[in-house]
Amino acid sequence: MKRKGLVLFLGAEAVFCIVLFLAQASLPWIFSSMIAFPFEQIGAGLRFLSLSGFVGNFFALVLYVLISLIPGAYLFFALKKRKPKGEDYLLVLLSLLLFFVLYYMVNPGLIKAPMNLGFGESMGKALLGSMIYSVLFTYIILRVLRLFFAADTGKLFTYLNILLYLLCALFVLNAFGFQFGGLLENIRALREGNKGTESGLGLSYFFLVLQYVVNALPDMLNVTVIFFAINLINELKEGKYSERAVEASGSLAKACRRALTITAISYIAFNLLQLLFFRSLRVLHGTVKIPIVSVVFMSAILLLTEILKESKALKEDNDMII
User: Is residue 27 one of the residues assigned to a domain?
Assistant: First the structure.
């Protein structure tokens, strides 16, 4: 995937996440929990179709079976090309779970009765959704590990690029999904906690938005860092001892340092601004984060840069001797 295509995809994902979390805030009866998406909405659609009449009920049943069999069907066609692996049996479990989960999503009244969960319908749907995602992500992780250990160098570069694309998508999901959802929840809590005095909440709303920007900024900076990482991988694929690979590694190290600097300064600036205006604010959020993982990652990139430089110099010396 070229950079332009990746940027367009991430932009579309960001818009989708914002719309999805706005829908959750506006339509809580059909978006009760994000982890239940899209199973809750599929269940609601199947229920509507089922209650529309005999024909609708028939098509709802057919769709229910077909959707639940998707993982099993994928496994069936995959096994025509290769031998079964241990993680493949998780797809069978996933199909069985889909039958179970979608049944309760179609009949949400049963969540609080026979299942005896001890909590509300919303939490029950979240639990059902988490069951699906836990099995799905476990399968993906085990499958990726198997592919990595069985791949040659060329395929490793390709797989690593794909993982970086997915990592970009996760950062965008966190920034424009969960962080944005947290902003909406903070605004709702501030409004409900200050009923009757809403006219004086303007500055507090502004600081909530500012807090969202500060919290989402590291994710977006990480996306830019990944762009440099993808460029480095592509250059290494073309030639491990090339000048462009060394330059790409140096650019990645600079991008890491820049991202860390901006992140640290943004947290300090936000806390200082809160301190300056704390008498006028109805809500305060102290933010202290130590980006240990980012520091370790940057150190590893700096080490890689030096290794590439030394390897390139050694190869040039060997070429001159030969």
Answer: no
